[in-house]
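Narrative summary of target 7.
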Amino acid sequence: QHVDRRRTNHVVALHNEIVGFCKLMEPHPEEMKERDDLVLRFTALAQKVFKGCKVQVFGSQATGLCLPDSDIDIVIQLNEGTDAASDTAKDGKNSASTNKPTSKEQELKDMENWDVPTGSPLDRLAECLREEWLDDLTYLEVIANTRVPLVKFTHGPTNIDVDVCFNMATGVQAAKLMHEYMDALPPLRPL
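Modeled conformation, tokenized:
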């Protein structure tokens, strides 16, 4: 038999297969819109519970490397105006002290107030999800005793899993760094 020497180089063929596989596996625009809509809806809920908080997406959703069945990783950044201590002050408790506490005293006060008035931020978020999204949840769990405590839930209508943590900057920083790497090295994305 005659061998066609004009065939595509094996490395180029492998590259084309990898790129084709990536296109096949990435979420369709409708799926990404569904994910973005869920993030917007969750952001509104989180800002209702924690006034002034910042909600950020990280992980594969933020980098654009998600698959159709990937979860969405979210961090809620609480500032001084959104933590349990500020809620306590609004209630009139612990507001009599006008002396500025030292950093060690403030740290102890923050630890004391973590569960005031209605529980930890994890529990407060889970309770609000139960109240506001009861018909939309197929799974909800608070995982408090881990290195990164979080609330996990599954949004039933979309079947998308969501993991929510608090005050963790590393995930958002890692997503930003991954974007920089992908901009600098375009072949990194399909790899």
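Residues 82-99, 108-117 have pLDDT under 50 and may be disordered.
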